[in-house]
């Protein structure tokens, strides 16, 4: 299965080289760290994918607000900060 990702939100600090790699592939990336849950809920509808580490809690409310969300990527170990059941129910792929 192939999905089209055009716009990614990175909500936790990651190495700038990762952002550079995505941009080299013509993928629009916004690095916005320190967002509150409400701020994330308000902007997630504008993105196809979300990349997090351990700081961002990807709750059912975040997932439901992600009208265009197709993918949640966890840069690190485990997915305990992602509601995987809500993501799966919404047809969103979770990768780590």
Structural features, described:
The chain is α/β, with parallel strands linked by helices. It has a single domain (7-95), classed as NAD(P)-binding Rossmann-like Domain (Rossmann fold), CATH 3.40.50. 29% of the residues lie in helices and 20% in strands. It contains four helices and five strands, in the order E-H-E-H-E-H-E-H-E. The chain has helices at 16-24, 37-43, 60-65, 84-89, and strands spanning 7-10, 28-31, 49-52, 71-74, 93-95. It has a five-stranded parallel sheet with strand order 2-1-3-4-5. The radius of gyration is 12 Å and the shape is globular. Keywords: NAD, Oxidoreductase. InterPro entries: D-2-hydroxyacid_DH, D-isomer_2_OHA_DH_cat_dom. One of its GO terms (molecular function) is oxidoreductase activity, acting on the CH-OH group of donors, NAD or NADP as acceptor.
